[in-house]
């Protein structure tokens, strides 16, 4: 049961499974919004000898956004302060579906095309094992000897696997994509002191190239999830698709970073998350008027742990589920609308409103508040907050320490 | 000992202290880079009857940035995900200096001009008490009955306190400023669903008005602190001044937010932190290649607590000091340079380099790594990471839970 | 609506409310297992002129243990490493019921007898406000001038309030009790360097006085809650009652501590929590075989925050509720039995078993494990765990830092 | 460079290194207070053909307690709520010394005798790699085929390695010991539902066997470290030795637990930490009067992470060092004395005193406090603490949520 993209690498893997393992291969190709047609994957699989009943192609876009992306955005998850986890969040779903189909067809092993240096191997395999503790996992890149592009191409030629022209030479960098983001890593991007060439970017125009006029949008939220755009209800996948288009056109969501991989080294990545970047800002804004301070600060304290779990591949872990129910609990009143100005890379919040708003003009006003708040209360509040600091200061006076 | 700005409000307080308390008032006016001249404050104090030896005016800009702003930026402190704590960080220093001068001149009480609804009263007074446990604190806004603008103006007129023309009517919003930021709050800004008028902004031009050509800069860091700009060494205050100018000209650092005050209500603020916004991005970038993953993730987990402490006014608390030594420990190798592109509100990292870089092209490369990393290790790594998830999955199979 | 114990202090408060406020007083007396009969409280209230329909007496023991004590024990909550929160956990329930009855009878204010120096005033009043934002709160100890025992006694005599003999002199210390614990504080206990006199203890015999023969018991758990003792099903209050008797007889559950109050000072308390101490140990033991490591470590990290919230009185806060759902999520399989040896102050776990056990003899055995675990996996696991430490060590070699 | 105990297993390893690797073996035997004489280890090493200059025997007891045990006790580290980390804390020191001696003698590989299922292999090897990134590690138990006791004995016989009589049969369980604790694991202890036989315990008598009369002791602390016993100054190792004797004689420090190993499975251990258990209670007690609430709660929140790092073997990691400096910062005034009653398994705090005490009878007293604390302050304190809860309650009234 192979996670099959239809590309050169997974086609080589397919053939290698047939030859090295003598396996009857079942392929699974998922549409997570990577932006490629799936028809060719079916044809190619057939051409490589896969029986039609062993070819599984599924559109998982709605499930992906609804059950993976949205819960994660409720948490405001940012890995190491900057990364919106676009690749990380896609792997658990693929892994889980692979296991489900494997059980359905009676496959005894699952296989993915991730390399032995990256995070994705971990994410895939933790998803496999969490959903089937006894499954056999095949990770060709850690096993075979096709460990150079030349050998891979030779193997492909030997077995008549079609090779796109631009794959003959070394690809200049490695790409992953889904409805949430595109990532580019490796090769010409490996020096973190060199700015990425403009060709690296795939799903956003540059801020410089974006229109001189801002775009104003309004996102409607319900229980922490975006449900409407400019008043029009959208499903999760429709929403992310629409926000991606808006982000792309306004040069939004590019990140150039050096991150710490779970397998222990630092790597440099160029990520584009146009819709997700807008969604993140909007979600923070609607939370700012609907979530209580105690809940918000707890969320902020839990977030780095949550993001780490997603990044490391522990989506199907009890601790991620514990954090999720806590986070979801905080979202019960995160309902309302946020207006945003999109302009040349900027996402600017210009308004937020909610029937569940905790913001009170009476409480905060510099004007007469009609008794909502007694300023004299602050004196006692401060005196007791200060008590332990005063006690420390008295000790210092007395002992010098 | 009054924290005296020279403005209308603190002039009224000064006179009120003389009349209501019969106090001999000592004034303290600090230059924290708020952008106003201090000469007029001296003249006004003299005019209100303060003896020259009781007028203290000090330039604290270097101390402010070096001992307060820089340590806080080492922590990447963001309150509620967005606020760079520009007002919060200035209060402890003012409060501490007030106490020091009060002790020097033998004053028995300190006084500030913060209102009873805000955070600043807490920050001032915690700083007072932490530095002198027995000090008497006078907070006029919580005590007097001049609780409307009309009464305040009447009082000012009664005592011949000069009133600037624009202060006669209600000020349209309230402003605070120092070298790190300007804030605007209250009055016409109180509805969080209304975009702030363009006149609110004081130290940045808008992204739209910024130049069409990006500005490229390089910031040099040493042990977590910015020490040079485009190769030229700068003191902390010089650095922040220079980054403020760069930020202002490129429309950088505007934030419109709703935050949770320590005294319990939500408030809306418009903040401008041009230099700080650049510094934050640059610091994260130099950390990304010089700080180990374990240290970085711990920092990220501690940050919300640290930011909360600064926001709440607990700068002089043992727990803030504990966090600070931990954070400072992590910065020992945060030395190197970061190149940034500033463009219409965007701060884009385009390069980072360090003699202490932990980034290794050998480890990360898709190419031959000459044995730096054995991909087979990943198999065992994943198998053991998965062991507990597999055990859970077996339980689920057996028990259904 | 007065929280009325029937004792001298709340009787004085009752009369004071009638005289100082001219109030029609409604009394509420709750049985939380403090071990006193409630009949006298009714009689005394009547004697002080309360109409029968204004006297509310309720047995809340089951609700107390089921909805407050048990959820808290699921969290393994310990304040400052030692205190099982016996007083803290009772206040929210009393406060909530007071508000409910106040609304039922149309009372416009609630009143409690806690002093102005302690935590209980905060816990009561936060519970009031969280359940009725507009309620008026009367805290006599912060308001009246009966601030010495002499004055209190005089007031009682003036209004013919019966005074127990031992109350005439200064009580030697202050006591609070409910089904979970007894606390003794203040007066002769105020010096933390003096061992408490043997008379202080009320619901436990000393370890020295306990039997020379251990008692063996078995507690059955279901989803984190104790449900049976030696095979016999018990309700929550029955369980705690039974464990209290076992604890008392074996000298278990005494704690002598100095704690940090929410209002800012340190205080010394002598606590007895016989049943709770047994329950805590048993719960940790059943968790040790049924809860996954990731979930357990997350629980342990969240616990101090949870305990702080309960101690400070924030039971009815969104952040406590967020933590609770996370904790409850972790308890789904915490089902099984724990055997314990009780002996002269010791609670010794001697066995734990569960149908949901995650403990696997196959995995852990020093003997042949039939392939459950491949020791070679550990090599790769360690190599990748070490990768970042090796990178740091290389930097140190190169740069000296 | 072999970590050599002189026992059967490491003697077999020694010979195996000579035969399988053809290695010139250097042995390192450390005295960490395991209670065995080191003379025999030297003789045995010589007998197995090790040159005298290649035999290293060191007494590391003082360094062990001073630089490892004491810093850890400053943190009040408890793994999973119960385990005082007695085995974990010894490994980093052994590993570090092995690397230092290896560099001194020019050894190119280090070797330990830990099995492939446990935590110790991780702890040793992380210590190796953190101190020498390029070192070669040999872990015989993961490599060789002597994977049954029979084969091991055969190998020993083949090479004339002396075999103690009781080692011929299966050892009934596996033991580790140092000055801080003894652990017993495996074999007859593998069923967590069976009480350990009385013979398992090695360094404590049972509570039942302990004297009927309590022992009273006084421990003096300086900056968080125990420095004197009953007024007599002791070095760290002397202190732990003395407390071990006191604990042993009073039946103190036995723990029977199921813990979660870093390598992924649960295991059952019987630990004896007599002196450490006393030290833990005493340290908490002296902290309770000398450490501020904010610092204490931060310590408590950081502790689980710290304990996890020590347990997992990350002593030499930047994040452990960050936590350590934060913890050490909190200990500056943890100076004073604690009196304890030791009685049949119980460690009972009966007094604490310090020149740096923050406990103030004036603040806490039920009596007249001479103005140290104004009870009216509490009203404002509570009102502002309640403000957000009241705002939530108003929302609930209005919206039902």
From TrEMBL, chains A, B, C, D:
Domain Arginosuccinate synthase C-terminal as annotated: residue spans: 173-390
UniProt catalytic activity: L-citrulline + L-aspartate + ATP = 2-(N(omega)-L-arginino)succinate + AMP + diphosphate + H(+)
The protein's Enzyme Commission number: 6.3.4.5
Annotated residues for binding of L-citrulline: 83, 88, 119, 123, 174, 183, 259, 271
Keywords: Amino-acid biosynthesis, Arginine biosynthesis, ATP-binding, Cytoplasm, Ligase, Nucleotide-binding
Domain Arginosuccinate synthase-like N-terminal residue range list: 1-162
Binding, ATP: 3-11, 30, 113
InterPro entries found in the cross-reference section: Arginosuc_syn_C, Arginosuc_syn_N, Arginosuc_synth, Arginosuc_synth_CS, Arginosuc_synth_type_1_subfam, AS_cat/multimer_dom_body, Rossmann-like_a/b/a_fold
Entry-linked SUPFAM superfamilies: Adenine nucleotide alpha hydrolases-like, Argininosuccinate synthetase, C-terminal domain
Pathway(s) the chain acts in: Amino-acid biosynthesis; L-arginine biosynthesis; L-arginine from L-ornithine and carbamoyl phosphate: step 2/3
Binding site for L-aspartate: 115, 119-120
Keyword hit for Ligase: yes
Organism superkingdom: Bacteria
Subcellular location: Cytoplasm
Known partners and oligomeric status: Homotetramer.
Name under which the protein is recorded: Argininosuccinate synthase
